[in-house]
Design goal:
heterotrimer; A mainly alpha (140); B mainly alpha (495); C mainly alpha (113); B: 495 residues; mainly alpha; two-stranded antiparallel sheet; 21 helices; C: 113 residues; Helix Hairpins; 3 helices; 64% helix
Chain lengths: 140, 495, 113
């Protein structure tokens, strides 16, 4: 089904990056305002799906040679590892640490371990969504 | 170490993630799984000892004060079940090396096992009703994976039904939790118990109790809701079937026992009477199913339904003797069901069919298998001194104490039907003229026989040594009888 | 407002039951999706729709929203997302293997294969 979808391919190359950065924005916004790892991950996956639609699965695999199963596993390890880390300090599981730091360029920022947990969720969501899409899409 | 009770849950969880990376290395996966289960068994054994020595252990996530955060609670019942779960899965995984097939092992069989164990042990340990839902979903998601793994036609067909039933039951679970939350305004099980005691269980709470019975009953396969179980379980390969049969329905039974001893204890004449009637009907339905079929696997599957009925009958009595009996019987049934599924799996392996009419005469070639099957069958029926006896004795004793004479006699009579149903397999498969045979690999037969025999030996030891197990059961039953112990432990842990 | 929500939930459940009872696998999956949406809305309603201000505990603030139902719904949404996705993949595989998406044609006893 090689249709002439030049316009779709051209626009999706640009829109991919717009969605990508929006996903990153939503991910970081999630700490104090609506957003977070789950929504960001879904947006990120939708950006990749857009590429899959306008090109095809093989091309996307060459552009982004990622094993999404490993991505899911990494995400799980990051998320649960963050939650389990306080156990080493004899604090309850899932204890949340945060502090204020002065970073170059950004200035005074609060850094949270919850963001690491959210990063794990982000990776899991992208990994799971893309695994499912790959499984269904592979046969065509 | 305040997080000690979480370690048995986290060990398989982490190992599940790591095993996802070694997808193609079957040998490594096998080795790591065995090590993990061994470590988890040892740790959970020490957690059990600690609970026995120091009382109920709790930890609330994130350092929140008790009724607000998610509390994990290790009491006598949950640690006992967690320990049994790990020991059983150790043998089931060992058995599976020869029978599950490399194709499945390369497609996330071991990570699926690890995640299902995380879900099961988490569900046993959690002290938060919504967290219970989350752990249920973890174990259900993994069970979908394990059930469909292999992609045979039968598996695909049955997993669709299985998933549909469980999705509907999960939706009902969410709805029930929503109702409960709107009435009591809390999700911590200890706090719910206190709040329900405060308002004295009005009609709406009793309605919620019945809704919970439906939700967990779908998972535990009680009388009108067991319809999905026989055909779905029969689609799974033997090691997965042993795992499901031994553990999954027991999670539902555990949830019913927990909610019906902790929350809904103020209107016994309705809720527990309903549970009693349903459990008796469950036993009757299971017996009819087990006697009607000529499929060896189906006979054992229907025996799951019978056992669920017997355990819930003990819970429904709501006195300490019967609860202790229910605990005894719960652990006994987990062990013996896993052993029976493994034995029947071997019978099917050597004869190549599950149809009893085609089998026969196995005792000449496979005497060890035959005699151990007979022991396991007697154990299931509860012939003293084997493991089913003590549990059933205490349950019936509790039934008499609660003045449910006729239904207790019915439980006793059902043992005979159970014995008949499993002895039919012995008569058809091991005695008589030689039936059909399949060419087998003697080495893999022996490798499957070793864990099976060991598990039967464990079940004998559990029956003969019930004197040594009794203190654990006693602690568990005492904590179930008196919700105050549980509540105090949780609230105290928050300080 | 709660009355309206109750009707919305009821309507969703009605549509879900209708779809689940149909034969086509895809309709069944959409039905389970609607069922979980109904359940999520029900949590929101049962948690109480009141509360104008954000869930901040401070002295003198009495009219604050309950933060818990949202957290529960988010968890439940993530789970139902996962289950629905898995169910879709399974239905697709079943369609390929069995050659039909009609559940009444999928019937069969254990002796079939």
């Amino acid at each position: 089904m090689k249709a002439n979808n030049l316009i779709l391919q051209f626009t999706s190359k640009i829109i991919f990056f717009i969605i990508f950065f929006f996903a990153v924005h939503i991910f970081f916004a999630g700490h104090y305002t609506p957003g977070g790892g789950f929504v960001g991950g879904l947006l990120m996956a939708s950006a990749i799906v857009l590429l899959v639609i306008s090109f095809d699965l093989k091309t996307v695999q060459t552009i982004l040679p990622i094993n999404y199963m490993y991505m899911t596993a990494t995400g799980l390890i990051v998320a649960v590892g963050t939650a389990a880390f306080p156990m080493l300090l004899n604090k309850p599981f899932f204890t949340h640490f945060f502090d204020y730091f002065t970073l170059p360029l950004i200035g005074k920022t609060s850094l949270h371990t919850a963001a690491l947990f959210d990063l794990g969720v982000f990776l899991v969501v992208v990994g799971v969504t893309m695994t499912i899409i790959q499984t269904i899409g592979e046969d065509e | 170490m305040i997080n000690f009770l979480l370690i048995p849950i986290l060990i398989p969880f982490f190992m599940g993630m790591i095993l996802m990376f070694c997808q193609k290395h079957v040998g490594l996966q096998r080795f790591l799984s065995l090590i993990t289960l061994l470590a988890a068994s040892v740790v959970s054994f020490f957690v059990m000892l600690k609970v026995q020595a120091d009382g109920i252990q709790t930890v609330t996530f994130g350092g929140w004060p008790a009724p607000f955060g998610i509390t994990m609670v290790a009491d006598g019942m949950s640690t006992l079940l967690v320990f049994t779960t790990f020991v059983l899965s150790l043998f089931i995984v060992w058995y599976g090396f020869e029978s599950i097939g490399v194709g499945r092992e390369k497609h996330f069989y071991y990570p699926g096992l690890m995640f299902i164990l995380t879900g099961i042990t988490g569900a046993f340990t959690t002290g938060d009703i919504f967290n219970l839902f989350v752990f249920f979903e973890v174990l259900l998601m993994s069970s979908y994976l394990l059930l469909v793994l292999g992609g045979e036609k039968k598996q695909l067909r049955e997993s669709i039904k299985y998933i549909l039933v469980n999705v509907v039951s999960s939706a009902l679970f969410v709805i029930t939790v929503a109702y409960l939350y709107s009435v009591v305004g809390t999700l911590s099980m200890a706090d719910i118990s206190v709040k329900i005691a405060d308002i004295g269980q009005p009609g709406i709470i009793t309605t919620i109790a019945v809704l919970f019975l439906m939700v967990f009953g779908l998972k535990a396969a009680i009388f009108p809701l067991y319809f999905w179980l026989p055909s779905s379980y029969a689609a799974a390969p033997i090691p997965v079937l042993a795992l499901f049969g031994a553990l999954l329905t027991k999670v539902g039974v555990y949830a019913i026992a927990r909610t019906y001893t902790l929350f809904f204890v103020h209107d016994l004449s309705f809720t527990h009477e309903l549970l009693l009637v349903l459990s008796v009907l469950t036993i009757a339905a299971g017996c009819i199913g087990a006697l009607a079929t000529f499929n060896a696997i189906q006979i054992i599957i229907y025996n799951i339904v019978i056992a669920v009925g017997v355990i819930l009958y003990g819970v429904a009595q709501m006195n300490e003797v019967a609860l202790e009996g229910a605990m005894f019987y719960l652990v006994h049934d987990m062990i013996i069901k896993a052993a029976l599924f493994m034995l029947v799996g071997l019978v099917i392996y050597v004869s190549g069919t599950a149809n009893l009419r085609k089998m026969g005469g196995l005792i000449k070639e496979y005497p060890v298998l035959g005699w151990f099957y007979l022991i396991a069958a007697f154990g299931l029926a509860g012939i003293p001194p084997l493991s089913g006896f003590v549990g059933k004795l205490l349950i019936v004793q509790g039934g008499f104490a609660a003045e449910n004479i006729w239904s207790s006699l019915f439980i006793l009579a059902s043992s005979l039907l159970v014995l008949l149903s499993v002895i039919r397999i012995f008569l058809y498969a091991f005695w008589g003229e030689p039936g059909v045979r399949q060419k087998i690999n003697p080495k893999s037969y022996r490798q499957m026989l070793v864990p099976t025999v060991l598990l039967v030996v464990i079940s004998i030891a559990y029956g003969v040594g019930s004197e040594w197990v009794a203190p654990f059961m006693d602690t568990a039953a005492k904590a179930l009888m008196d919700p105050g112990i549980y509540v105090d432990a949780v609230m105290k842990g928050g300080e | 407002m709660e009355i309206v929500m109750a009707f919305v939930c009821g309507f969703l459940f009605m549509a879900a039951v209708y779809l689940i009872l149909s034969r086509s696998l895809l309709r069944i999956i959409i039905g389970t999706g609607l069922l979980s949406h109904g359940a999520h809305l029900l949590i929101l309603t049962m948690g109480g729709l009141g509360g104008e201000s954000p869930p901040v505990l401070a002295d003198g603030v009495t009219d604050y929203a309950d933060p818990l139902p949202q957290a529960l719904i988010l968890t439940a949404i993530v789970i139902s997302f996962g289950v629905t996705a898995f169910f879709l993949v399974l239905a697709y595989r079943a369609y390929q293997e069995l050659g039909t998406d009609d559940t009444s044609l999928m019937k069969g006893s254990d002796e079939d294969d």
